[in-house]
Specification:
mainly alpha, MetI-like fold, 0% strand
């Protein structure tokens, strides 16, 4: 057996080396495929969206075909509804995720909250739109920007809940124990120790939520509907996803061009937001 041990060790080492090479190859191939697909999407958006990009896109409202309309009202509506939905959903999701990670443990109520959050995370957005329609649109007799923001907030909440819980769960227990040993209350430990340790992951989750809701169309069809002019939150409000949805299937070339330009603007906006947030976090 003593003579065979070095040979067996060499065989096992070669086997592990082959498995490692195969694993690296598969991982590298998957990464290259994902990056190539992303580059293809960005290249398509740039190729088809850039020709329609002009100052009029940002200064002119949507108009009838052939009237040299822009996307100003749709851009404003998207920014307002996305910002309001994120402002509503983020604190709720952050607090719920903190409760699940720091206080709930394996309690029955925590399990129920976690289960409901998982259901919302996987629920089709069109069902969320129908739910908000039934409680905020139908009873009040009209579509509104508030209803659209509420639908987006419902989509934001479970994403932030899951990310916050996961990131706080990764914070070492020794950090909490050290803060408590110095006399820090539990809420201070969470606020000044756990949040700071997990801030990059939590911020990433918030940005993922923003990226998700920025391109949602189905829930807005049942809540804010759309508008061809500027409007307040109390009435139907335009948005880029709905405008893209309407214009992309149009028979008019100028509307199709505006649809591609709108898709490019959404992509660049989300990409810029992600880059700026990462730079801010690293600098701090």
């Amino acid at each position: 057996m003593s003579r065979r041990d070095p040979r067996m060790a060499a065989v096992l080492a070669r086997r592990r080396h082959r498995i490692d090479l195969v694993s690296r190859g598969l991982a590298t191939g998957a990464t290259v495929a994902a990056l190539a697909l992303l580059a293809w999407i960005l290249l398509t958006l740039l190729t088809l969206g850039l020709p329609g990009l002009s100052p009029a896109v940002f200064t002119t409202i949507t108009k009838s075909p052939g009237s040299n309309g822009g996307l100003a009202n749709a851009i404003a509506g998207s920014v307002i509804q996305t910002a309001l939905g994120t402002a509503i959903g983020t604190p709720i999701g952050l607090l719920a995720g903190t409760y699940l990670a720091e206080y709930a443990g394996h309690s029955a109520f925590g399990s129920v909250v976690r289960f409901v959050s998982d259901i919302l995370l996987s629920a089709p957005s069109i069902l969320i739109g129908l739910f908000i329609f039934s409680i905020l649109v139908a009873p009040f007799g009209g579509f509104s920007g508030y209803a659209g923001a509420a639908a987006l907030a419902v989509i934001v909440i479970p994403i932030v809940v899951r990310t916050t819980e996961d990131m706080l769960s990764l914070v070492p227990v020794t950090l909490r124990e050290a803060a408590i040993a110095l006399g820090s209350p539990r809420w201070k430990t969470i606020l000044f120790v756990c949040y700071r340790a997990a801030r990059e992951g939590i911020l990433t989750g918030i940005l993922l939520a923003v990226a998700r809701v920025a391109g949602e169309t189905a829930p807005l069809l049942f809540t804010s509907l759309g508008n061809s002019d500027y409007s307040g939150l109390n009435s139907a409000m335009a948005s880029l996803p709905i405008t893209i949805y309407q214009y992309a299937s149009s028979a008019f070339d100028d509307w199709v061009q505006l649809a591609w330009t709108g898709a490019l603007l959404i992509t660049l906006g989300v990409l810029t937001l992600n880059i700026l947030a990462r730079l801010i976090v690293r600098r701090r």
